[in-house]
Fold:
Amino acid sequence: MSELFNKKEYLKNLIKRINSEKENEKLKKELQSVIKNLSAEEIAIVEQELMDQEGVSIEQIQSVCDVHLGLFKEYIEQEKIDVESWHPIYILMKEHEYIIKTAEKIRDIAKQVLNKKTIQEAFPLFMKLNIHFDDLMAAENYFLKEENVLFPYIEKHGITKPPAIMWKEHDQVREFRKQLIKIKDKKNFEEAKKELYNISLALLEFFMNHVHKEHSVLFPTALKLIDDEEWIDIRHQFDEIGYCCFDPEPLNIEKKDVEELTEGKVKLPSGELTIEQLKCMLNTLPIDITFVDENDEVRYFSETKDRIFVRSRAIIGRTVQNCHPSKSIDIVNKILKDFKSGKRDHADFWLKVGEKYVYIRYFAVRNEKGEYLGTLEVTQDIKPIQEITGEKRIYDEN
Structure:
């Protein structure tokens, strides 16, 4: 503890000396050496104490920030990983570059805003900021790909802690992002410009530290654990989520979707279920579903506790036209014709049934080639949904 205290005090003195002495290149090298032995959090504490307790300005703190960011850049450049351009790790590294550049632009504009005396003078800069804020929001796809694809694959190989830490850091970046966007609503310009600079700098330092960890620990670990076939699966799933800054090289390898029934389980591309799990899951959904095949024959319906419209197992194999009164058959046939021809993909109806307000939706079910497989009917009482107001974020005990 005393050693850490001494390092922090030494760093404080260095920052003061750099701002008071003209020939400070030697001091900056000394500063670089000290920073290497402190975490980003420890450096941030020193900077805050200097501003809060000793009256050091934001501008005077910039020297240590520049050195710190320079170190991170060095680390990241040294940690280049050699993978092909189609590879998910290559894509994530390219997105890192994009997000860092966006954060740097925001920090640079925030520096300029510091020197403006009025909101009117700073207005053109705030307009530029809006563009970069949009770019920062687009970076969400980077987070989603790691959290929903890469992390689960790493966890499958028994490594759980690093992904959990990285996810927590993603949430911190999201929090910085929220704080930046909220600054636009501040009425006190002096407070706003200082807050803008502090948060933009904190975001940049934090994210660069995050990238350093991923390049030095997470990505090398993933490359050791995950095999080539899994990387191809990961890439296909990345394509489904999308990218935030560029279109990567196409992957010309078709994904292998496994669909089979083995040992009482239905194995699908997105998981596997026992027959009992599948049956109970479908019957637990807060909707009624009925599936009619390409020959207009009823093949399945869910058996929920409180069905809106009566169904009996006797209708399985029956044509859907025979399940409706004669006055409705023309409409049924028109829907099916439009679905089969590709003219439409869904049709919606809503009506009152006693105390319920029933929403009925018909969907054309197609395979990946676009071929018609049948029609899915989804029925739901939406009256309770229409009555929802406000927000509920707390899990209650009732």
